[in-house]
Write a structure and sequence with these properties.
single chain; mainly alpha; two-stranded antiparallel sheet
């Protein structure tokens, strides 16, 4: 395929990934990386490098919209970012040492687990329990907009959440997914934040973590500017649209749709990784 049509299709796919990434807090990387590998025959390392650049763009576009809408919890995001960044740097250093088929199998396993957890996720909040004392001390409790006003929420298990964010950072740097696949799960399942708060706060965090990992990928030569540019532009545009749509969409249909798409991609990535082993 000629270069211009090929890059146009890549940008169109990245636009769709950007919409999904903003709506789900995954940053688009969890869709973008398997799309580039499976549909456009891009090397896994180059796909992860382009994804890290794109995730930074997604984070910027989505965070601006989410902050103005009142969803993002900056106190939680900044606290969790300390361990996530450290993990992201460690994961990026490991990426050069892990064979590509192994990366694909690992990534597929992460996708499979994310699909399962997304599908079984319960709706937000535990209003009858007090917040974690550390969350109260750091003033992490807040509220988010719903139809008819604002709904307060509590925050639980802050330290376990921070430790798991370090693991999320390692996955981000290793696989180029911006850690969003794990960020949302940790904030929703462990810290019991509302879905839209988890999504928007994850979008804020992933850009910083991805930027820390991208420098190491650039050093190893895994970032191809010709590929990264249309991916970044497409994801940025999709993220702007996705951030606007979040206000009008219900959480449950989004989770079901996302889990089905991710399940299909997980099985394909695991299969291709095992075949190439």
């Amino acid at each position: 395929m000629e270069a211009l049509p090929y890059l146009s299709l890549v940008a169109a796919g990245a636009f769709a990934a950007g919409i999904v990434g903003a709506l789900t807090g995954e940053g688009g990387g969890i869709i973008l990386v398997p799309m580039l590998v499976l549909l456009f025959d891009v090397n896994m390392h180059n796909a992860a490098g382009a994804s890290l650049i794109a995730v930074t763009a997604t984070s910027t576009a989505a965070t601006i919209a989410f902050l103005s809408q009142g969803y993002t919890n900056l106190r939680i995001g900044m606290f969790l970012q300390t361990t996530s960044i450290s993990g992201g740097v460690a994961g990026a250093l490991l990426a050069a040492l892990v064979p590509v088929p192994a990366l694909m199998a690992i990534f597929g396993s992460v996708l499979l687990y994310s699909s399962y957890m997304t599908f079984r996720r319960k709706e937000e909040g535990e209003p009858d329990r007090p917040s974690d004392p550390l969350a109260v001390r750091l003033r992490m409790e807040s509220s988010y907009p719903v139809l008819g006003g604002w709904r307060p929420y509590k925050v639980f298990r802050v330290i376990p959440g921070a430790l798991l964010m370090g693991v999320a950072g390692i996955i981000s740097g290793l696989l180029g997914i911006g850690a969003g696949a794990v960020n949302v799960l940790v904030m929703d399942q462990v810290m019991r934040l509302p879905y839209k708060v988890s999504t928007s706060t994850s979008n804020f965090m992933i850009g910083i973590t991805a930027a820390a990992s991208a420098g190491i990928y650039l050093h190893h030569g895994y970032i191809d500017p010709v590929l990264a540019m249309p991916v970044m532009l497409g994801v940025f545009g999709g993220a702007v649209v996705g951030a606007r749509l979040l206000m009008f969409l219900r959480a449950k249909p989004l989770r079901i749709f996302f889990s089905v798409v991710v399940l299909i991609m997980a099985l394909e990535m695991i299969y291709k990784g095992l075949v190439q082993w």
